[in-house]
Amino acid sequence: MADQRNGSGQPSNAARNVYAIDVEKFKIRLKAFYSNWNENKAGLWGSSDVIAIATPPPSEDLRYLKSSALNIWLLGYEFPETVMVFMKRQIHFLCSQKKASLLEVVKKPAREVVGVDVMMHPGADEQAAPVVGHILREAPEGNLLETWSEKLKGAGFELADVTNGLSDLFAVKDADELINVKKAAFLTCSVMNNVVVPKLENAIDEEKNITHSALMDEAEKAILDPTRAKAKLKADNVDICYPPIFQSGGEFDLKPSAASNDESLYYDSASVIIIAVGSRYNSYCSNVARTLMIDATPLQSKAYAVLLKAQEAAIGALKPGNKLSAAYLAALSVVEKEAPELVPNLSKSAGTGMGLEFRESGLNLNAKNDRMVKAKMVLNVSLGFQNLHNQTKNPKIQNFSLLLADTVIAGDQNPDVVTSKSSKAVKDVTYSFNEGEEEEQKPRARAEMNGGENLMSKTTLRSDNGEISKEELRRQHQAELARQKNEETARRLAGVGSANGDSRAASKTSADLVAYKNVNDIPPARDLMIQIDQKNEAVLLPIYGSMVPFHVSTIRTVSSQQDTNRTCYIRIIFNVPGTAFNPHDSNSLKHQGAIYLKEVSFRSKDPRHISEVVQQIKTLRRHVMARESERAERATLVSQEKLQLAGNRFKPIRLTDLWIRPVFGGRGRKLPGSLEAHVNGFRYSTSRAEERVDVMYANIKHAFFQPAEKEMITLLHFHLHNHIMVGNKKTKDVQFYIEVMDVVQTLGGGKRSAYDPDEIEEEQRERERKNKTNMGFQSFVNRVNDLWTQPQFSGLDLEFDQPLRELGFHGVPHKVTSFIVPTSSCLVELVETPFLVVTLGEIEIVNLERVGLGQKNFDMTIVFKDFKRDVLRIDSIPSTALDGIKEWLDTTDIKYYESRLNLNWRQILKTITDDPQSFIDDGGWEFLNLEASDSDSDNSEDSDQGYIPSDAEPDSETEEEDSDSESLVESEDDEEDDSEEDSEEEKGKTWEELEREASNADKEKANDSDSEQERNRRKAKAFGKSRAPPRPAPRMPKRPKFR
Fold first, then answer.
1. Which residues have C-beta within 8 Å of that of residue 631, sequence separation ≥ 6?
2. Three-class SS state of 921
């Protein structure tokens, strides 16, 4: 049997003795073969009455043959030097005696499913049966096939090519074939992400001299040994699709037959690197190709953006019912619209079908193929631009090409890109190398903004002139982030109106409050005393000799008091529609002439009765309000899918003895429960039937696993898209945890020796318990992560994230100091309640406030992209954590600013949403840039003014709002206390007094050039009210307008 290089899944010598054909799969596929042949005989099968397939001997060359593919598809393995002749009533096998004995098992199944007899003809000297259909493009090899070919030609029959029929037969894959394709794609992406890209980045960063062929060898070794690529696949089942392709230095070939040469990798500025990697699993192919760009030119940036959009359009056109040509035409349409000058450079095909063969010729994605797309087809969508030219004399970068390729499965509705884990996003394929030229290119980049997008680099590499300081690199990166952030904010504000909607649920109208449906339902009067009807939730008041009922929800407050004569008074105040705290509802608007009772008072000589009445009314009102609040919260919940229990499908993944936060309500003793992973979600339950929570996988936004290190608990935390109810609490955060250490207090009072054997043994037990708990949680997390890698969860992008303790810092997000830790996608604090989970992708900017010399603490303000959402303040962060926080923010591509004062963000965001155009025109977020402020004030006094809110006049209302925005947690050092005392003294100063002090300070600094108008402008630009400094605040920057 054939070697693996011949496109087969050849078993090892040890496996040959136990080789067996899968009879059930043979029956299904033989029936499909005859059905396709009968249905498309006149077209795809060339009107063939008989089909002869000859498989050549094994070869060391890597090749793809239709005959080999049919062997593997039908029988499971390749049978070289074998001729198969398919007739209407018979199937003939011309092969060796050993192969004939292995094929005996197919005789009975063939007769059962299609009614044909299988005939064996061992030996090469047998006479050939007459045939018509054959594979035209496969030349005969070996004695048997040459003899067969000669007899076939001499028989006098007309020969027809059945290649298209076999292509159509192989086009639609069954479930087993799709699994093989997905495993091959997983291996290909793992090699690309874990081997190829890191190897390239390391070579470029360290300026290594490495050849294309050496990179090819590394990638090929990783495919043949999946453990190198961190892929858990058996090496016996994998192989390469083709030798991996690496191209750079101006010589590019986009054909699948291209090869890696022995030239060195070229990665200077404006260079392009093309990578193509393909692997096979059980003989089924997958392919991915990516283009990396170093300091991309505007032409390269634009061409790549157009190519990416064109490939996505081609993939989107691969839907059942469309023609295969629709994919190429969709890509061509994008290029003609976005960059018509690039149409001549576009590849003439958008890819081919793929499976057992790397290129199934009958499924070419070109403009002329009218065959229809069918669900479960596998296609290699490959698109590129060939022979583009840069305006340079350097031959290494004068010519360049771009290529993108992905493995795609045509789904019932939408195509599935199974190689999507290999990123092709702009930020992941572009690299910055010439940092020294970045500042010079910025003005030009702004001028060219309309012509092509200036792409942001993924990794900052070393410059040619030596090492650049970390602070300088960070500053340059932040400058680029500022430009991009202003552009992004401008687009968002331009596309979203400033209308402020009220998303609050409508309150219950007065018409819904019914205590009694009928007068006869009112209980009889008892001595005209105030009565409480618990059942009907009503309070009956004696008014003019009658008992008048009031629903308890209409009561706003109730109070009692006693005078010196021991006379008690009870005062009841009602909710009146139309007042400040009780807006009109639909019912009150219908009866605008209605008269409402505002309050009522009663006098009594029985203080005990009065006290009981007040207590009963308050208790009843509290219960009713709690019930209505829970009902309102449940009404706003998004309906969730029903949990599908594992049942007999698989044993649910289980973690026991867990506690939950938020806790269930009720007065009973709290009980631990177990967490189980089922088909589409988690279920937590205790021994009480009512204590159960279901968390659907589709509702999970972020999942965290935090092992106990310096904490006392090991936890799993789920941050959800939509609220759920835990008991009677509405929450977006659900946590399951185990306490790994007991809180023990020694009652003895005396100190214990450090060498006390009991204490040493106790500490050892605690360590063992902690390690055991962490390992149990880790095992649960690993198994759930494996479950989430299944195809049905691919769109959810779920994976447990683990906080990075080394990047953590202390701060006060709510009321107590907590240890706040970043993860790969969030900023979290999961130990203290309320929990803190901030998604990094939702952050607009971060402003570090109260940053300055002599400060022991500073504050962090997080501004979200949704300007209607309140900013998040994290107070009292130690100043020692400042550099680490800056580095983390810069690494995660978050733009940050620094300010010496706490700003009034509510007023700032209101100003932006009220007049977004002024915010954009005045430079966007650059009004926060203190560095630009200092440099601009030194270099230019006549430049454009920075962003000034239109309503920043110093009136009394603004001062009150500003005072609310001050830091909630102040520094505890003496200097802070002194400054606070100073601020209290100076709060009463008028603007004229402050202006005189500012003028004197300016004269002392010999800064008489500032005019009265400039000083007034600086005052108006102070958003937040600080602890009134003894000298005037530094001048705000003068910046160019953002366009």
1. none
2. helix
The two tokens of residue 141 are: 């090899």
Q: If phi over 0 gives left and psi between -120 and 50 gives alpha, with beta otherwise, what is residue 923?
A: left
Cis peptide before 256 (omega within 30 of 0): no
Bridge partners (DSSP) listed for residue 407: 380
Query: How many CB atoms sit inside 10 A of residue 677's CB?
Result: 21
> DSSP letters of 664-700?
P-SSSPP--EEEEE-SSEEEEE-SSTT-EEEEEGGGE
What is the tens place of the pLDDT at every residue in 458-475? 444 444 444 456 778 888
Closest residue by Cα to residue 132 from 166, 87, 172, 101: 87
DSSP string across 368-382: T--PBP-TTBEEEEE
Q: Which amino acid is at 470?
A: K
- Residue 261 tokens read as 């040469």
Measured in degrees and rounded to the nearest 5, phi and psi for residue 731 equal -150, 155
pLDDT tens per residue, range 901-952: 889 999 999 998 888 888 888 888 888 886 655 544 444 444 344 444 444 4
> Which 8-state DSSP code applies to residue 880?
G
Q: Sheet of 857-864: strands edge to edge?
A: 872-878, 857-864, 843-849, 896-898
Query: Residue 190 — pLDDT band, cuts 50, 70, 90?
Result: very high
Q: What's the rounded Cα separation, in Å, for the pair 379 and 690?
A: 51
Tracing tokens 């991009």 back to the chain, one arrives at 484
Half-sphere exposure of 57 (CA within 13 A, CB side): 8
Report the range of poorest mean pLDDT among 132-141, 701-710, 771-780: 132-141
Predicted model pTM:
0.43
Separation in Å, CA 140 to CA 56, 57, 101, 131, 357: 7, 9, 24, 15, 19
